Amino acid sequence: MRWLIVILAAGLAAPAARAQQAPASPPQQLQITLPEAVQRALDVQPTMISARGDQRNAGASKRSAYGAFIPTVSLGSSAARSNITRIDNTTGRPVPAEYSYTGSFNASLELFDGFRRFANLKATAALDQAAEAGVVNARFLTTLQTKELFYAEVANEALVRVADAQLARARQQLQISIDKLHAGSATRSDSLRSIVEFGNARIDLLRAAGNLLAAQADLGRQIGVDEPVRAAFDSMLPPMPDTADLRRTALATSPAVEQAESGARAARALVWSARSQYWPTINVSYSNNRQGTETLNGAPNFPFFGNYPETFQWRFALSLPILNGFVREANQVSASVSRDIAVARASDTRRQINALVTTQLATLSTSFEQIQIADANRAAAEEDLRVQNERYRVGAATILDLLTSQAALTTAEVNVIQTRFSYLVARSQLEATVGRTL
């Protein structure tokens, strides 16, 4: 039975030794710092590209609203050639083939439109502000997502080190159990339990390595790289931020609140734009046309500078809609409904940010306190395992006591990593909510 235990232990230890000799990460693996990862993600993420596109569209709409105040102008000209000889009806003589030229100039301006252009200008300005806030919001959300993936890679890499240390402790304990079994100071049950613990430690290491590879692949996708990426992390944790006046500033600087309130302002302006349909409209326009012909052997003249006959026209138009099948009323109701929804959404967004800040501040404070507790627990677990190892060597402790201490140390090390990860993520979430770096 003792030889069977030795053979089982050797069979379990050999693959683990080969695994330790293999490199933990592929050669020439890309390493990236957090600022570099954030910048790359801002350049490639579809959310950011879409937000910037919305901002460009809003800017174009705003320029178009300003352009409604200037006249519309168009120029036109044409030239035609014919090789068909025709007969002059007056003289009865043949007229040689000729060129015909036409030039036109048209301009129009809307003098009064029931203040519709002013309302549209106000609405597009508000939508432009909403688009700018949307870019800020998308930037912080993309930054948050990148930080979460970055910290997840860091945490999984640390968990691999914890699993590797757990495997080393299990291997050491297995060797001690075998040595004590040979010396007759331990039972076969101790060795068998050590073998089980060693096998579980190997499984935990393989699982942690798989999670690390998945986290590195997710980080690579986030920054636009088609390969796993390793995070180059500074082990120094940022300090606890000053949260005394954070709630008030969050409601003032939150991009989500600014975006919702800008949308509400645009909806109010569109209500006045819909009301402009009840006012008359006044337009003025001017057109100028010149036409002329030249024979094929003659020198053509430019229509606007030659001696061709000129025809021009000024036109003033006044229009007052009286009844249009209640279309104006339907548009007015639709604009009012959109305004009410936008105002309600802006108020709810403000309340949501207020509640979210409360939750995130509590999470941040709790996570920061848990870091110190987890560090103290790990130190205590390390000392307890050291004592249990010595007691087991001299026969004052059982294998169950030693395995319990080993499991407690592994749990304490995992808790240290998780509390640090929770604190970093909570801090990033709060930054995304308030719209500024803490």
Structural write-up:
The protein has 438 residues and is an alpha+beta fold. The chain folds into two domains: 2-70 and 114-278 and 324-434, Outer membrane efflux proteins (OEP) (Up-down Bundle), CATH 1.20.1600; 71-112 and 281-319, Outer membrane efflux proteins (OEP) (Single Sheet). The chain is built from nine helices and eight strands. The chain has helices at 2-21, 34-44, 46-67, 116-183, 188-222, 246-253, 255-275, 327-393, 399-434; strands spanning 31-32, 72-81, 86-87, 94-95, 98-112, 230-231, 281-295, 310-319. The protein has a four-stranded antiparallel sheet with strand order 2-5-7-8, with no helix packed on it. A two-stranded parallel sheet has the order 1-6. A hairpin with a 6-residue loop joins strand 3 and strand 4. It is elongated and about 140 Å long. The two termini are 63 Å apart. Residues 1-14 and 16-26 have low confidence and may be disordered.
